[in-house]
Specification:
Elements: H1 5-47, H2 54-76, H3 79-92, H4 94-124, H5 129-136, H6 144-156, H7 161-172, H8 175-190, H9 194-218, H10 220-243, H11 247-252, H12 255-279
């Protein structure tokens, strides 16, 4: 039974008012969340000496949300899945940034022995520790170079060297940095043997790096098995869809299929996190 023109007009006006209300209620909140996330991610990247404006990050988040939403809607024909896909960039944008920060941190820690080697040579030649830090900056590889330049800049602003080293320890937050900074903070005011301290710390850090590399090589097979077990269910689902073209339609078109996919995804994520925790043992 069709609607009369008056009923259709009333329905359209009501629908337009509802949509207008929802947009006016949701858009300011969404805009605030996106701007806040962009500012936070820009600040995190700035700490790693990557200068990316918040506006550009917000544009990337919006484009990613639109692409994922359109792709999910075209694949599943579900508005709920499309909405969840649109929210995903805002929720998980911090993961690649955290991955980059952890990778850069590992690179810096692996370069610490080279820094200590150069510092001990300059101090042995008669330079002070602050002068040695300034002179070694151009000789260092990217990563540790920016961190050393940050230490030198903070010292030139009028802060004492022990205070700057304490800030550096708080900034990087690593056991290797603490192993270097805390003895230095005690030795600088007391006039300790800086050269001997730097060389001993360099040797200890090299032993720790060798032990870490050995542990990583011993767990290589376990990490490969974790990757295979994580990718096996999606690959099996894709293979089944090739054999049976209606597989995904039947799976995602019923409440039981959606529940199975949700439970399987949760178990996959939990298993991957558990394996990563088991393999993250430090020497």
């Amino acid at each position: 039974m069709g609607l009369t023109p008056a009923e259709a007009g009333t329905f359209l006006v009501g629908a337009a008012l509802i949509v207008r209300f929802l947009l006016r209620a949701a858009l300011p909140s969404a805009r605030t969340r996106i701007v806040s996330a962009a500012d936070r991610h820009s600040r995190d990247l700035r700490e790693e000496f990557v200068h990316l404006p918040p506006r550009r990050i917000a544009v990337v988040l919006l484009l990613s949300a639109a692409i994922l939403a359109v792709g999910a809607l075209a694949t599943t024909r579900s508005a709920a899945v499309a909405a969840a896909s649109a929210i995903a960039p805002l929720l998980f944008a911090g993961l690649p940034i955290r991955w980059y920060r952890n990778r850069r941190k590992r690179s810096i820690l692996s370069q610490l022995p080279s820094l200590l080697d150069l510092l001990s040579g300059h101090v042995r030649a008669g330079h002070s520790l602050s002068e040695s830090l300034s002179e070694t900056v151009p000789l260092l590889p990217p990563g540790i170079r920016e961190e050393t330049a940050w230490v030198v800049q903070q010292y030139r602003l009028g802060n004492s060297l022990p205070e700057v080293l304490a800030r550096w320890e708080e900034r990087v937050r690593s056991g290797e940095i603490s192993l270097l900074v805390r003895p230095l903070r005690a030795a600088i005011p007391g006039g300790g043997n800086i050269v001997d301290l730097l060389e001993r710390t360099r040797d200890i850090l090299r032993l720790r790096i060798r032990a870490s590399e050995k542990l990583r090589s011993m767990t290589a097979q376990a990490r490969l098995q974790a990757l295979v077990l994580t990718l096996l269910p999606p690959a099996f689902a894709v293979a089944l869809s090739k054999v049976d073209p209606g597989f995904f339609t039947n799976l995602l078109g019923t409440p039981q299929g959606k529940a199975i996919v949700a439970v399987a995804s949760a178990l996959e994520i939990a298993g991957w996190i558990s394996i990563r925790k088991i393999l993250s043992v430090r020497p």
